Amino acid sequence: MIVASLTRQMPHSVPPAGFAKRWDVSRESLARLELYAGELLRWQQVHNLIAKTAEADFWERHVADALQLAPFLSDARSNIVDIGSGGGIPAIPLAIQLQDQRQGPTITMIESNAKKAAFLRTASRLCGIDVRIINKRIESLTDSDVEQPVDAVIARALAPVAELLDLVTGMPVRPQRMLFLKGQHVDAELTEATKCWNISFSKHPSQTAPDGCILEIHEAERVKSVPRSG
Questions:
Q1: What's the confidence (pLDDT) of residue 37?
Q2: Is 172 a residue whose pLDDT tops 60?
Q3: For residue 103, is it within any domain?
Q4: Of 31, 77, 89, 227, which is most buried, counting CB atoms within 10 Å of its CB?
Q5: Is pLDDT of 39 > 70?
Q6: CB-based contact 112:88 (threshold 8 Å)
Q7: In CATH, what number is assigned to the domain containing residue 210?
Q8: 146 in a domain, yes or no?
């Protein structure tokens, strides 16, 4: 039968052994993460929420990748904005982890695709987390869409650094910092970005990808063009 076939092909939503201890996840948070994983993989059979090649390694490639941001945001008390949220990585695992056992920050997810936004609403309700989902393009955000102040803007697998800076600086928010999960091309992206931007940043090694990093941008100011002399 087709249903049975899909079930057999669908990756198991239970985390690998030692996952909770490695990422300091409580029993309650782990149960919520399992609910999220199961729901995402269920929707994945119909909607393309994550890359097909990443399904089998979902916990390490996606959930763990999101959770490595938690220590950078553990002191956040205001708002965190996730741009281009897609299937909820990193926002939903982060919300589960940061809101466990205390009043954590409000996380706002910006997603332009209506079907993905519908999934985000469903998964958030299922997991019982305090989040906001805005179904708009980033360029269309208004002052009423995002609560101020904003502690951080986060993004994963959305765009090169220069484009991310264009997007963030065009938003009606002024985040204290930006945290971007980046891959092996981050140095080339930074080189390109510095042609148009003065950037104060730190690179933190990724705990999930040997060639990846967490790019923390403290300040970014567009380079002013110097008029040519006649």
A1: 93
A2: yes
A3: yes
A4: 89
A5: yes
A6: no
A7: 3.40.50.150
A8: yes
How confident is residue 153, by pLDDT bands cut at 50, 70 and 90?
very high
Return the ∠ at Cα 223 (arms to 219 and 229), rounded to 5°: 160
Task: Tell me the C-alpha distance between 41 and 10, whole Å.
Answer: 7
Helix (H) or strand (E) holding 217: strand 213-222
Q: Compute the mean pLDDT over every residue in the chain, rounded to the nearest whole number.
A: 88
Q: What is the mean pLDDT of residues 16-28?
A: 94
pLDDT value at residue 140: 95
Q: What does the pLDDT average to over 45-64? A: 79
Q: What is the mean pLDDT of residues 183-196?
A: 96
Asked, for residue 83, whether it belongs to a domain, the answer is: yes
CA–chain centroid gap for 41, Å, is 18
Q: Distance between CA atoms of 148 and 157, rounded to whole angstroms?
A: 25
Those residues with Cβ within 8 angstroms of residue 68's Cβ, 6 or more apart along the chain or in another chain: 23, 206, 207, 208, 214
Whole-angstrom distance between the N-terminal and C-terminal Cα of the chain? Answer: 76
Q: How far apart are CA 7 and CA 62, in angstroms?
A: 21
Question: Is the pLDDT higher at 230 or at 31?
Answer: 31
3-state secondary structure at position 83: strand
Q: Residue 30 class from Cβ within 10 Å (0-12 exposed, 13-18 middle, 19+ buried)?
A: middle
Both tokens of 27, joined, read 């029993």
Rounded CA-CA distance 150/127 in Å is: 23
Quote the domain boundaries for residue 191: 64-222
- Number of folded domains that form the chain: 1
Half-sphere exposure (Cβ direction) of 80: Cα atoms closer than 13 Å: 28
45 located within any domain: no
